[in-house]
Amino acid sequence: MPNPKHLTERIFQSPSKYIQGPNAIKNAAKYLGSLGRSPLLTVDNIVYEIAGRQLISALESAEFKVTRGTFGGEASTEEINRLTTLGRDSQVDFVIALGGGKTIDTAKAIADQLQVQVAVLPTTASTDAPCSALSVIYTPGGEFDKYTFYDKNPTIVLVDTSVIVKAPPRFLAAGIGDALATNVEARRSKTSPNFGGLLPTEVSEAICTKCEDILFKYGKQAYEANKAQAVTPAFEAVVEANTLCSGLGFESGGLAAAHAIHNGFTAIHAMHGLMHGEKVAFGIVCQLVLDGADIAELDRYISLMLSVDLPVTFEQLGIPKVTDEEIRSVAKLACAPGETIWNMETAINEDIVYHAIKGANAASVSYIKRTDWTKQ
Ligand SMILES: [Zn+2]
Known about the structure:
Helices cover 50% and strands 11% of the residues. The chain is α/β, with parallel strands linked by helices. It folds into two domains: 17-164, Rossmann fold (3-Layer(aba) Sandwich), CATH 3.40.50.1970; 169-370, Dehydroquinate synthase-like - alpha domain (Dehydroquinate synthase-like, alpha domain). The mean pLDDT is 96. Zinc ion (ZN) is lined by residues 127-128, 178, 259, 276, 280. Zinc ion binds next to helix 10. InterPro entries: ADH_Fe/GldA, ADH_Fe_CS, Glycerol_DH.
């Protein structure tokens, strides 16, 4: 329910510093020195080979003592506790997250338990996790568990675009899906508490709008640049939209139906191979249908998402034969108590969401047919 506590205060929160550019990791010691000298580096084995080795050597040559905490792959309570123990035993004085959304969410939770600062070094622009003071926690099996909130945002977010451009373009596209939801959801939750627990500011609204402008202007161009591993101005702009604008925008603006429906879809096993932003992309179409968007508006978003190969139909989500019963179970989870869907001012119930999900698939299928999209 919007503003159930009749809040009057507004809040905007963010990391202390955001740094982005092609040499960020090489210069990491310069930016991270103020946090301490003995970090716990949370990194999985794949990212260690891509960027971890380079980061450790950059830090060790500046006399940091780095403890490597190998991340197992799921942002679960079990994994967080295991790495927290390692950090405590090694007497680390801050935490570094190097990797994607789940690595970042895990590192933020570890830093909170150790009561130290965290620096986030994303190696993909696939989610808006780097800037926020919350983590999405999953079960060890990969199902959505809960949101966990922290007192502080990450102190430093350091984005090396020369590393990000080496990630598969699918990651950037997923980030575009997540970032495109930011404005669509924030504009429907203006009178509800944001993730800081108070009302959104004008600044967060401006950031959400800017985020969307960048994606419509440069999303497709950046996706193509990523395929060629070219760090262009369009690529830099979209990395900023996906990471900074989307991160600040969703946290201080608020989420609504797109993410709640995403959370519902995490219970469908056949979709576990999809990335967060890919499921959110379909959630955007659902949100627009719930909003009563006209066909021109729906087409505009669907077209952008298709241009970067984001899934907008059941078939593209890999669930062509999804049953009504399964869609009802997604709708039920999306309407769980405390879900962000309740930020919306319009009437919401499981039945309304069930119909919106089916209507979203129909709208995208219709767009693809009308425009002969598959032949383009
Ligand atoms: Zn998201």
